C-alpha cells in the first residue's frame, strides 16, 4: 500500500506489483508459463495474464474477475451463503 494524499484526508491505494514482478521473472523463465492463483491470487493472475509469455491461467477456489471487477465488488454482488450468520 502506498499513501495518496488528497487535500486534508489520507487515503491508501493498492500498489499492484504484479506486472513489475512478472517483468523481473520473465528473464528467469524464457518459455511459456502457467500462472496459478488461489483465493485472492486469482485477481492477481488476472492482472498479468495477458503477458506474451503466459500460456494460461489456473484458478483454484479463486476470484476470477472480469475487466473492471474487483474481489470486493464480487463479494458484495454474490455474498457467501454464511454471510447472514456473521
UniProtKB/TrEMBL annotation:
InterPro entries for the chain: AB_hydrolase_1 (IPR000073), AB_hydrolase_fold (IPR029058), Sec-Metab_Biosynth_Hydrolase (IPR052897)
Single GO MF annotation: hydrolase activity
Entries under Pfam families matching the protein: Abhydrolase_6
Domain called AB hydrolase-1: residue spans: 21-76
Transmembrane feature ranges: none
Keywords attached to this entry: Hydrolase
Family annotation (PANTHER family): AB HYDROLASE-1 DOMAIN-CONTAINING PROTEIN-RELATED (PTHR37017), ESTERASE_LIPASE_THIOESTERASE DOMAIN-CONTAINING PROTEIN (PTHR37017:SF11)
Name of this protein: Alpha/beta hydrolase
Gene source species: Pseudomonas sp. W17
